[in-house]
TrEMBL record:
InterPro entries, per database record: DcsG_Biosynth_Enzyme
Protein name: Uncharacterized protein
Provenance organism: Mycolicibacterium pulveris (Mycobacterium pulveris)
Length: 232
């Protein structure tokens, strides 16, 4: 294994799971090896582990119980040094009113009373750019009208939060309907399932590399890039 250079700052990265999944789930199993290939070292911890507060960067992944302990969780997000996605993103997205914000911004949304009989597609974005889409347990290529809803939701969310879409490490947009009337059902910016294991191996490797490159970009924005803190 290539040794870390002693004269270069190496940020301490944590992938945050939950008490039930302190080491994440099977879907994210490839993320730590993908980070390591780029010289970034990370480990899994439950989000409520005190050691997360010592990390330079925490990436929310399998925080499945955050809704059950929402007040505690939101307080923790504000105490972490650097969190992806950011604490203000998490607070807005965990408030049910965020869907009304998106509807007010002109994003076509599904009425709450609407059933789930319509086809549903999960659109995954990395760094504000479309990555892959999933439906019926596998990878799909949605019509551009479906992607348009995803892009509109992401742009409206970023505008609401006064961020650029590229500031969001990841996003998952669940859309119901097909090209005739696609509508937003759910936007997840907190710790969405990204469906890595549903992708073909080559696609998964390529898009996980994109994920890591977006982590690198975030580290640079935060002043935590590997060459931004030279030791004297």
């Amino acid at each position: 294994m290539k040794l870390a250079r002693p004269d270069v700052f190496h940020p301490r990265i944590v992938l945050a799971g939950s008490p039930a999944l302190p080491e994440g789930d099977r879907d994210d199993a490839g993320l730590i090896p993908a980070l390591r290939k780029r010289g970034l070292h990370a480990r899994w911890l439950s989000w409520d582990d005190p050691a997360t507060l010592k990390a330079d960067l925490v990436i929310l992944r399998a925080a499945r119980d955050c809704g059950e302990r929402l007040a505690e969780f939101l307080d923790w997000t504000r105490r972490v040094r650097n969190l992806l996605n950011a604490p203000e993103v998490v607070a807005w997205n965990t408030d049910e009113r965020h869907l009304a914000d998106l509807a007010d911004a002109g994003v076509p949304t599904m009425p709450r009373a609407h059933g789930r009989a319509s086809p549903e597609t999960a659109l995954v974005f990395l760094g504000g750019r479309q990555s892959h889409a999933l439906a019926r347990g596998g990878e799909v290529e949605p019509d551009f009208e479906v992607w348009d809803v995803g892009h509109a939701a992401l742009a409206a969310a970023a505008d609401q939060l006064k961020l650029a879409p590229t500031d969001l490490l990841y996003a998952r947009v669940d859309v119901v309907g097909e090209r005739t009337d696609p509508r937003l059902r759910r936007l997840d910016l907190v710790a969405p399932a990204l469906g890595w294991q549903q992708l073909q191996a080559t696609t998964r490797a390529r898009q996980q590399r994109v994920f890591v490159l977006e982590v690198e970009s975030a580290l640079d924005r935060l002043g935590l890039g590997p060459f931004s803190h030279r030791r004297p």
